[in-house]
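User: Run a structure prediction on this.
Assistant: Running it now.
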Amino acid sequence: MSLLIIASDSPGAGKTATTLAMAQISNENGVSASAFKPFALTDNDPDQAVLAALANPAPDGWPIQIADSGPTRDDIAAAAHPLSIAAAGDNPVIVEIPSEIDAGGLAELADAWDASVLIVAAYRRDLRASDLSEWQSALGDRFAGVLVNGLTRYLGTEANDNLIPSLEEAGMPLVGIIPEDRFMLSLSVEEIRAGLNGRYVIDEGDLNAPIEWFQVGGMSLDPGELRFGLYDNNAIVVRGDRPDIQMSALNSSVSCLVLTGGIEPIEYITYEAGEEEVPVMVVDTDTDSTMSALNEVTTSARMNSAAKVARFAELLGTHARDLPGLLSAAS
């Protein structure tokens, strides 16, 4: 059975993105691959639905709900048979595992399924090989390496000087370092509204459009159309009583307006936004509080669209090493 487990040292490191993107890369190379998440700690794991929608349907009864302490031997055995069927003919199977499963539990899984394991680690400035050594020690020869995800822009030199040498010294294979990407961090208009507890004044246009940038609509020496037009897929956060700034934004092909202070826009703004099919939402908080809240909301960005899978596959193709070889080595 050709099986690769995708695990991580923390939630939100990029396991689902890696699982889906590696399956897509394999399929594009003419090798049919499946992607699954057999275990979950709750019965409403959102990643399960995403994998089913963007990769392949899950077997009946999945995800198998497990305890916080990890899967039992019966759980592991129950998942093994469907995985072996999916891997018939040496077709690669890529399996995402909850980050709550510790190194010892992961090693037990890998042995039971005869699988290799790739650890996805979220980049942080103090990340070193010592932070990942327990995985390497527990997995032994089943340890396929580390994929570091989310390298912040302008910290490449620091990673080259500190992180990479520590991995090399520990003999820890580095599969790649994926840079932070605005599109991967994007939220839809509707996700922003829900996260801010806002209400639509205009709900025309694409409410699933990705928002990559947020700009505050304030006074500036530059024309508003020029400043707001610097980025695509952007939302403008502006006080509800500033129709002059709102109109400048609408003249700049923005993706969304977020009006603060609980103030409804004047009729002329609602008319123009409707004509341009630009969603407009109102939130009760002031502009400063709204921007602070957006910092929290953006941490909930999920892998939830085929476009994000394609983008992460592109990032892997550029910044990761020998992914087809990694999959074949799992057999």
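The CA atoms of residues 180 and 306 lie 18 Å apart.
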